[in-house]
Recover the amino acids of this structure.
């Protein structure tokens, strides 16, 4: 009750405080008339940058044909105007300076030469990568190679992003990235999030935003920053949409199909998209582990282990909603999302146990069947109210999200002598691991312009999460199963986070400033029922952010930003359950994990809006990382997350995006960096460091007559992440595209990982740990994709951040691909 009172009191204080500031009236205005000389209502007006035709804002004309754009930065622009039955109008380039208002010459549209009912399309194309003050924007459809790919595969090619063998995402060499969908966290575990991103087709995504140092408006979670995946949604009058079908062939076949529909009539806008994905692949894992004599470095036992798992994940995802334009200034909305996956992993794991002379002494052969049923539903209610035309507005979001996960495991372990004769009775283990997560979240964001190009954003948020996990293990005994009390467990976790923030931005002729402060209060409890242990945590933290930009001249711009962030443990990482690969290998949670904190500083220089150079430094305390531990006497290895060290990361990134010729456009990203870890692991000093580098490139070639091709790839040198030293890896990709049916359809053919080099390998070496690992998967895939767009011309819909901005990314579930 106190938390609710604090939330609503905070909203009232923020709204009341907002009224004392004066308003700003600087804007770009104009009017549009149709071929009948009458005002053109509901015409689409797009504001573009002159230098690269990048879309800045979209407006619809009023009943009088008027339109306006506010809060626009200084620069050269042009407008493109389209309306049903009329030819597209493109204005001349014009200069706009902040703190001024200009009125453009009246636009007079002409009838379309072909037909008064023929669709009007604007063919200006966004660049693949856009650099902005506080983020890098990746326009997904701008790349041929993205066609038919999943969102995970697009992320693997994104500048500064790396994805490891388990689907964990790093940004600029730093772990702990908060991944959001349309401004909302996914609430999923790393493994479940990886499965979801592998099932989500790129055709459903508009942009991917990379924020290494997000503003105070965003949740403070995410040590390395935030990746926000914005899905497509249209709001053109009438009916429109698109369909897409894709077939891919690697070792196994893969398909995904999607349909995206939108219908707007009068005050209602209905939208829906549905995706079906059948992802079939494999993991071929090799492990070599050495166990030492107690207190010495003499090898006692060697485990050489091969595991091959075939993974089949059919999934369905849907997003549907409605916007109701109650008045010219008030919009009410509802969005429903659903996801269903019924996956299965089957395979065999064989371990050859050897003595110090590499002579096999025994063999363990384990067959594994893992079935998972994963259901997720979410409901978002939202409201947007614009108080006036200057940009003062209030956004409110209420969210309810639920996850129901049921995992069924069956292990059949067989034990042999070196000559493959049975040495002891088989062991059959059955696991039933249901998990339930419920999330409630509410937030309010208030934005208002001030005098002289300034802006103030204020907001509050409160969330409540309940996670209930039950692990029931049984041992086969003469055809019947009995409870295995040593493995069975039950864990309940509850968490409440309350936050308030203020963000101020100011623009001058050559300077731009954004400064914010976010306060988050966390209250968490955890209870393990089997061992009757529990914990309670309460803490409050401050998270400041500062962005400063200076434009020296038309060619040079400098930027400086600073921020503090937090990475809380994933819900299931606090859960002390065991997840088995075989009798000697398992993963276990850690209820004593503490959050980690990081300070991020970046200094950047942009030349001609083409080349951006960024020097970045991050210091992280109490870092959470995955460690490998061994029990030598039992020859057991287990994975365990711990707060092991303080870490530092310093690097320099170069991002180049430019047209080389009229028919060749290139983007190049290079990021060399140094990572250092210094702390304690298993009660002993731990130190590790390495110089590493990442490289991304994409090249598009326009061949004419609707044909274009693309070639690109990424690479990563050897490096270190906590306890593991990883080896180099990379991928080369290529594609070709042909536009058909008056540019309403496209056919794309692409091949990913042409030389099959996207394979992970590395080594864990510390104290009594010496483990070599190699993991291969189905990464080389040839794809063909057909996309057809129908209906009237579309405009970008309002994209919303909702109240669920942190919690989704921390959910752990059943599947572990």
């Amino acid at each position: 009750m106190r938390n609710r009172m604090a939330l609503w009191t905070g909203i009232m204080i923020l709204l009341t405080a907002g009224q004392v500031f004066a308003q700003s009236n600087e804007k770009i205005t104009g009017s549009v008339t149709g071929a009948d000389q009458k005002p053109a209502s509901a015409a689409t007006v797009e504001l573009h940058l002159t230098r690269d035709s990048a879309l800045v804002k979209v407006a619809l004309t009023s009943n009088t044909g008027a339109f306006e754009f506010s809060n626009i930065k200084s620069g050269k622009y042009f407008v493109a105007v389209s309306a049903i039955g009329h030819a597209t109008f493109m204005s001349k380039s014009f200069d706009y300076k902040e703190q001024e208002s200009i009125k453009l010459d009246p636009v007079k549209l002409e009838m379309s030469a072909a037909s008064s009912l023929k669709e009007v399309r604007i063919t200006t194309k966004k660049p693949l990568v856009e650099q902005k003050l506080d983020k890098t924007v990746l326009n997904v459809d701008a790349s041929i190679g993205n066609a038919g790919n999943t969102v995970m595969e697009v992320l693997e090619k994104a500048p500064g992003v790396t994805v490891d063998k388990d689907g964990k995402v790093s940004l600029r060499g730093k772990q702990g990235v908060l991944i959001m969908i349309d401004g909302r966290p996914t609430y999923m575990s790393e493994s479940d999030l990886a499965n979801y991103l592998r099932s989500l087709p790129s055709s459903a995504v508009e942009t991917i935003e990379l924020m290494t140092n997000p503003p105070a408006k965003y949740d403070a979670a995410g040590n390395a920053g935030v990746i926000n995946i914005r899905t497509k949604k249209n709001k053109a009058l009438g009916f429109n949409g698109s369909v897409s079908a894709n077939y891919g062939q690697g070792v196994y076949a893969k398909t995904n199909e999607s349909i995206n529909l939108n219908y707007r009539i009068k005050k209602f806008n209905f939208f829906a998209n549905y995706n079906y994905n059948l992802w079939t692949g494999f993991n071929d894992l090799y492990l070599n582990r050495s166990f030492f004599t107690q207190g010495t470095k003499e090898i006692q036992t060697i485990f050489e282990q091969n595991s091959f798992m075939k993974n089949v994940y059919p999934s369905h995802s849907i997003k549907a909603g409605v916007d109701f334009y109650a008045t010219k200034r008030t919009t009410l909305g509802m969005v429903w999302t659903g996801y269903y996956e019924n996956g299965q992993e089957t395979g065999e794991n064989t371990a050859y146990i050897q003595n110090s002379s590499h002579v096999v002494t025994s063999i363990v052969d384990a067959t594994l069947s893992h079935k998972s049923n994963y259901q997720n539903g979410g409901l978002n209610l939202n409201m947007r109210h614009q108080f006036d035309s200057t940009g003062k507005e209030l956004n409110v979001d209420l969210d309810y999200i639920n996850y129901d996960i049921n995992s069924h495991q069956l292990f059949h372990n067989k034990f042999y002598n070196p000559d493959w004769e049975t040495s002891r009775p088989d062991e059959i283990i059955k696991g039933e691991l249901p998990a339930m997560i419920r999330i409630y979240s509410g937030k309010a964001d208030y934005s208002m312009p001030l005098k002289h190009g300034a802006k103030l954003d204020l907001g509050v948020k409160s969330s409540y999460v309940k996670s209930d996990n039950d692990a029931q293990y049984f041992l086969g005994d003469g055809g019947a199963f009995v409870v295995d009390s040593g493995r069975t467990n039950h864990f309940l976790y509850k968490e409440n986070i309350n936050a308030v923030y203020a963000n101020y931005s100011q623009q001058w002729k050559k300077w731009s400033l954004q400064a914010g402060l976010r306060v988050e209060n966390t209250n968490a409890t955890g209870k393990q029922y089997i061992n009757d242990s529990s914990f309670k945590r309460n803490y409050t933290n401050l998270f400041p952010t500062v962005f400063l930009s200076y434009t020296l001249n038309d060619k040079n711009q400098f930027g400086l930003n600073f921020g503090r962030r937090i990475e809380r443990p994933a819900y299931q990482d606090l859960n002390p359950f065991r997840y088995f690969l075989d009798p000697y290998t398992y993963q276990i949670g850690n209820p004593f994990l503490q959050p980690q904190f990081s300070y991020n500083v970046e200094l950047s220089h942009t030349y001609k809006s083409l080349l951006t150079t960024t020097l970045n430094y991050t210091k992280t305390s109490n870092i959470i990382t995955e460690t490998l531990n061994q029990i030598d006497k039992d020859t057991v290895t287990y994975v365990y997350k711990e707060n092991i060290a303080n870490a530092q990361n310093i690097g320099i990134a170069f991002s180049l995006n430019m047209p080389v010729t009229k028919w060749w456009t290139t983007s190049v990203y290079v990021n060399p960096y140094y990572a250092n870890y210094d702390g304690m692991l298993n009660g002993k000093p731990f130190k590790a460091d390495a110089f590493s580098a990442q490289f991304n490139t994409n090249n598009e070639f326009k061949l004419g007559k609707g044909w274009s091709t693309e070639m690109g790839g990424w690479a990563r040198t050897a490096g270190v992440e906590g306890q593991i030293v990883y080896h180099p890896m990379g991928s080369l990709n290529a594609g070709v595209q042909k536009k058909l049916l008056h540019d309403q359809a496209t056919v794309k053919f692409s091949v990913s990982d042409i030389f099959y080099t996207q394979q992970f390998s590395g080594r864990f070496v510390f104290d009594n740990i010496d483990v070599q690992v190699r993991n291969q998967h189905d990464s080389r895939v040839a794809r063909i994709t057909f996309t057809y767009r129908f209906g009237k011309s579309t405009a970008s819909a309002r994209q919303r951040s909702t109240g669920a901005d942190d919690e989704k990314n921390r959910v752990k579930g059943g599947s572990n691909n």
Notes: Residues 2-108 form a domain with the Immunoglobulin-like fold (CATH 2.60.40.10). The helical segments are 2-18, 151-157, 190-199. The first strand starts at residue 27 and ends at 33. The radius of gyration is 28 Å.
